[in-house]
Amino acid sequence: MRFRYIFSAIRSRITLRLAIILAVVFGLTVPATFLIPYHINSIEIAARARNAEDHNRLVEILSVILSEPLWQITPEIANISSEVVYSDPRVATIEVITLPDRKEFIKNSVRRQTQKGPFTTMAREIKHGGQVIGEVRLTLAEDLLQESLRSDFRRYVTTAVLSLFMAIFFILLVLQWRLVQPVRMLMDESDRLANGELNDPIALNREDELGHLANSLEATRQALKRSFGELEVKNHQLLEYSGTLESKVRQRTQELESVNQNLEAALNNVNSAQAELARVERMAALGSMVAGVAHELNTPLGNCLLVASTLEEETRHLLQMVEGGQIRRSDLTRYAVTALDSTKLLLRGLQQSAHLVGDFKQVAVDQSSAQRRTFGLLVMLQELTALLHSSLRKTPFTLELDIPEDIQLDSYPGLLGQVFTNLVNNSVIHGLEGRTEGHMLCTAEKMGDYVMVIFTDDGKGIPSEIINRIFEPFFTTKFGQGGSGLGLSITFNIITNVLGGTIHVSSVPNRGSRFEIKLPLIAPGDRDGKDPLLNEG
User: What is the H or E stretch that residue 373 is in?
Assistant: First the structure.
C-alpha cells in the first residue's frame, strides 16, 4: 500500500517533457544494450579470425625458410632467417626442435617477458626432400588484439552516449518550441479569462490540437464577453426600472407598443440563446468525453510506466554485474526474457492508448465544431461508442450497434454525434434508471436517399401523459435533480432544422422506448457553412 502511494506520488510529479525524455532514453538505451555487445562480438570474431590466419601464415613461412638451415645444422643462419617473422610485434616465441631426437635447435623468447598474453601456439613440421627433419612452434601474444577490441568498445560506447545526449537536446528544443511555450501561453490566457480580462483576443496560428484548443478558448472568451455585456445592460435596465417604477405604471398604456417591440427582440434573443445552448451542450459533451478518455488512458499508460521502471531496474542490475565481472549466461537469458516480455507489455499498452487517442481526435474535432463532411455512419458511431464506454462501464447497461458498413452521409457528424449522445444519456438517466441490467440498440437501414436510424432500449418506457412533451424546451422529469430539459429539445432541433430529417418516438410501459430518426444521405444547406446552428435565422 505504501509502495502504491509512493509510486502514485512520483507519477504525479512526472511532467510531459520528462516523460518524453525518459521514453527517448529508454528507447535508445535498450537497443544500445543489445547492439553494442553484438557489434563488439562481431568485431572480436573477425579480429580473431584474421589473427588465426596470420598465425597460420607465419608458421608456414617459418617451416619453409628454416628447412635448409635445419638440414645443414646451422643455428646461426636459422636465427637470422627467423628474424623476418620475429619482427612482427605479436610474435612471443619461436622454437625449433629436431626430429626424431626432439632436441632444441633454436629458441627465441626474449619478447615474451614484456607481453601479457593470452598466448596461442601453433606447430608445423619442417620437411626437407620429403623427409620430416624437425618441428617449429610459433607462439603469438594477443596484447595488440585485446587493445584493439578495447578501443572499439570505447568508441561504440562513446558514440551511443553522444547520440543519446544529442537526441535529448534536440527533443527538448522541439518540445520547448512546439509544445511547452504554446501550452504556457494558453495557461496564461486561461488565467486571464479566469480573472475576467476579456478584451484581448486569444490567437495561436496553428492547425494542430493546440490550435483547436486556442480557438475554443477564444470562442469561450467571446461568449463570456457577450454574456457579461448582456448582464451589464440588463442590470442597468433594472436600475432604471426600479427608479422609475411609478412613472412606468402610469405610462403602461403607452409602453404596450414598446413592449411588443421588446417581445420581438426577446424572441430573437431566445433563438440566439437556443443556438448558444446547443453549442454549450456540444462542448459539455466534449468535456465529458475528455474526462472519459483521460480515465481510459490512465490504466495503459500507468502500466507502461510500471513496465518501463521495471526494465530500467533490470538493466541497471545487469550493468552492475557486467562491471563487477559476475555476468553469467543465465543472467543474460533471464534479462532477455524480461526485456522481451516488457516490450510486449509496452507495445500493447501504447497501441491501446494510440487507438483510443486516434478515435478521440476525430470525435473531438467533430464535437467541437459543426463542420460538414462525408463520413461512414458505422465508423462515426463506433468511435463515439468507444468514448462513451468509460461512462457506460460504470453502469450495468450495454450499448450495441447493428449498422451496415456501406452507409455514407454528407452531413454534420458532430451534430449527429450529439444526437446519439443525448439519446444514450436519456436512456441511462430516465429509461434504465434503478435497473440492475439494461440494453440499448442502435440500428440503421438505407431507404433510397434516406437512412432510417432506430434507437431502442428495454427500460421502463415513457408515460403516455408526457410522451408528447418530451421535445419541449426545459421539460424534464428530473427538474431540480440535475436535469435541464434541453437534451431532447436540442436533439429535435438538430434533426429537423439542421440535418433535414424527422424524429418519432413510441413507447410501451415497462417494455422500453423507440426513437425512429429519418435522415437524408445529403444534408440540406450550404456545404461551406461553419456552424449551421449559429447561422440560423
Answer: strand 373-376
Q: What is the pLDDT of residue 376?
A: 93
How many CB atoms are located within 10 Å of the residue 268 CB? Answer: 11
How many beta carbons lie within 10 A of that of residue 209, not counting itself? 11
Cis preceding-peptide flag for 118 (omega within 30 of 0): yes
- The CA-based angle 452-464-274, given to 5 degrees, is 60
Number of alpha carbons in the 13 Å side-chain half-sphere of residue 48: 11
Provide the pLDDT for residue 76. 85
Q: Could you report the per-residue pLDDT of 481-512, keeping only the tens digit for each? A: 545 556 788 888 889 888 999 999 999 888 89
The side-by-side arrangement of strands in the sheet containing 438-447 is: 397-402, 438-447, 450-457, 512-520, 502-508
Average predicted confidence (pLDDT) for the chain: 78
In angstroms, the CA 301 to CA 153 distance is 36
Residue type at 24 in one-letter notation: V
Q: Give the span between the Cα atoms of 458 and 513, in whole angstroms.
A: 7
503: left (phi over 0), alpha (psi -120 to 50) or beta: beta
Local structure of 265: helix, strand or coil: helix
- 3-state DSSP of 412-431: CHHHHHHHHHHHHHHHHHHH
